[in-house]
TrEMBL record:
Protein name per the record: Transcriptional regulator
Domain of life: Bacteria
One cellular component term from this protein's GO annotations in UniProt: cytosol
GO molecular function, one term: sequence-specific DNA binding
Boundaries of every HTH asnC-type domain copy: 10-68
Keywords: DNA-binding, Transcription, Transcription regulation
A biological process term (GO) from this entry: response to amino acid
SMART domains, alphabetized: HTH_ASNC
Species of the source: Saccharomonospora glauca K62
The keyword Oxidoreductase is annotated on this UniProt entry: no
Species classification: Bacteria, Bacillati, Actinomycetota, Actinomycetes, Pseudonocardiales
Length: 154
């Protein structure tokens, strides 16, 4: 779905303010975009209702919480399997922080986070042990070069 069709320039500026600091008050955002606090609140409520904004959250450094080892894993499944079925098998694994269906040879790409390389190896073994998995191809992350939130309007 293309959200930009439903989001005008003013909404994009409000979203940009929230991306920069989700704790900004409606009054602070209003000063930046030239609206009253109640007008900003109405627009934010509408952005939440339409799914443009999915919520507000704290951004946590996984390494600070002891989950600094990560890998991306190509998952190749047995036979033709639905994304919903892949998801249902991945959800119980706490090390799976994200999973995506993809084009190409793999059925999905899974992002794993673990405390250390031994924990990662254990998580990979449990992933490979799932009945739907035929094989995996793992890439361990050495460092993060770039990670940024989306910027509305760009």
């Amino acid at each position: 779905m293309c959200y930009l069709l439903r989001v005008n320039t003013l909404d994009q500026r409000i979203v940009s303010c929230l991306v920069a600091n989700a704790r900004s008050s409606y009054a602070e955002i209003g000063k930046v975009v030239g609206l009253s606090a109640p007008a900003v609140k109405r627009r934010v409520d509408r952005l939440l209702e339409t799914g443009v904004l999915r919520g507000f959250t704290a951004v946590v450094d996984p390494e600070a919480l002891g989950w600094g080892t990560e890998a991306f894993v190509e998952v190749h499944c047995q036979g033709n399997i639905s994304p919903a079925r892949i998801r249902s098998h991945l959800e119980p694994l706490p090390e799976v922080v994200a999973a995506y269906t993809v084009s190409g040879a793999a059925d999905a790409i899974v992002h794993l986070r673990a405390a250390d390389i031994h924990h990662l190896e254990d998580a990979l073994e449990r992933l490979r042990g799932l009945e739907i998995i035929d094989r995996t191809v793992s890439t361990v992350v050495l460092s993060t070069l770039l990670e940024r939130p989306p910027h509305p309007g760009s």
